Amino acid sequence: MLKTSPFHGRTAPLVRAQTWRRWAGYQMASAYDPHPDREYAAIRNAAALLDVSPLYKYRLSGRDAGRLLDRMITRDIARLGVGQVYYTPWCDAAGKVIDDGTVSRLAETTYRLTSADSPLRWLHMNAVGMQVAIEDVSERLGALSLQGPLSRALLQTTTPANLGALKYFRLVETTVRDIPVTVSRTGYTGDLGYEIWVDAQRADALWDALIEAGTPYGIVPAGVWALDIARIEAGLIMLDVDYFSAHHALIEARKSSPFEINLGWAVSARKGPFNGRGALAAERARGAAWNFVGLEIDWESFERLFAAHKLPPHLSNVAWRSSAPVYRDGTQVGYATSGCWSPLLKKSLALAHLRAPHFAPGTEVEMEITVEHQRRKAAARVRKLPFYDPERKKA
Rounded distance, CA 308 to CA 326, Å? Predict the structure, then answer.
């Protein structure tokens, strides 16, 4: 049986098209409308409310909580102050990524770890001999993501916290209409936005408060389809779509290092021992064999593939998640993993793994496109990620 989110009582009646999906063992909405157009538009033009409760959530506390995380993640935990949030990967001993997620420092010796896959066993393996309490709070904590250019103005009407002073990747303990919450300036859309963490018992009240306050701002509940388009525009990776966990990959070739999935910036070159440190230092010195980049598909080339069959170009309003070979001068140099038509940028975009030396921005490549059951190639150009990066996201 699939589990339901703490907000299910409010979201389920709104899923008019019954477009349910499985997310980490939960029954969640792909979209509330039959198509995600209105929901995506809210993310980029107003405010969208997304239920992200299926994220795994762990509370780590005690004298060695920071020491455990420092052993596990690639970033320097000593530089994470109370009220700050890290986005970070964590690796195995060979420097291959197990998962990526956030670490929030809630108090001097208390942290919250969120992830797409459960790291519970890995946490306990790394905590041997340490004084640390590891609590799985996944089902006790609901999470809403309020994203979009009006998210700050909307949320400010409900809380005494000064959101104008809350910096990017910071958090504050506060209330929303007298409901105790933690608000972090984080999200998965590449836009201005906040994630709101609440006791599951108060989930309905929080949803109602935000919908009521957000109605004058054009708030729209949004599902995974709209989120997928936004995260591709933002160049954000997804586990089991854009890369495989080192713990679940069936063969070595499916594993990736942080440098190979555009997360090299999150690997500390100075901190003490951590999982994968030696392998990552060696890779930093020699250079990564692969890189994760964006592709912009040439419109005229794309259009010609359909015109050859007397068809208009097919543009889905749902992102695709499948492997598509990428070529240069007739030789395969990599593969795309997900992509979409960007309603905002008016371009066909893809996220791709490319071998060295073919991943330099501006490199001309070709991506395989299937038209009328025939495999063809459309011209594309390598782009440095993200595709879309509005100033308001961090301002």
Answer: 21
3-state secondary structure labels for all residues of the chain: CCEECCCHHHHHHHCCCCEEEEECCEEEEEECCCCCHHHHHHHHHCEEEEECCCCEEEEEECCCHHHHHHHHECCCHHHCCCCEEEEEEEECCCCCEEEEEEEEEEECCEEEEEECCCCHHHHHHHCCCCCCEEEECCCCEEEEEEECCCHHHHHHCCCCCCHHHCCCCEEEEEEECCEEEEEECCCCCCCCEEEEEEEHHHHHHHHHHHHHHHHHHCEEEECHHHHHHHHHHCCCCCECCCECCCCCCCCHHHCCCHHHHCCHHHCCCCCCCCCCHHHHHHHHHHCCCEEEEEEEECHHHHHHHHHCCCCCCCCCCCCEEEEEEEEECCEEEEEEEEEEEECCCCEEEEEEEEECCCCCCCCEEEEEEEECCEEEEEEEEEECCCCCCCHHHCC
Identify residue 202 by its one-letter amino acid code: R
Position 198: which residue type?
A: V
- What pairing do the DSSP bridges indicate for beta strands 47-51 and 219-222? parallel
Q: Please give the pLDDT value at position 273.
A: 96
Report the chain's mean pLDDT, rounded to a whole number.
98
Structure tokens at 82: 């109370």
Which CA distances in Å does 214 have to 52, 62, 157, 188?
18, 39, 9, 20
pTM to 2 decimals?
Answer: 0.97
Contact 249, 262 (CB under 8 A): no
Would the CA dihedral through 278, 280, 281, 287 be positive or negative? positive
Residue 17: the pLDDT is 86
Residue pLDDT, tens place only, 306-365: 999 999 999 999 999 999 999 999 999 999 999 999 999 999 999 999 999 999 999 999
Q: What is the mean pLDDT of the segment spanning 141-160?
A: 98
By the 8 A CB rule, do 349 and 232 touch?
A: yes
Closest CA relative to residue 158, chosen from 119, 111, 195, 211: 211
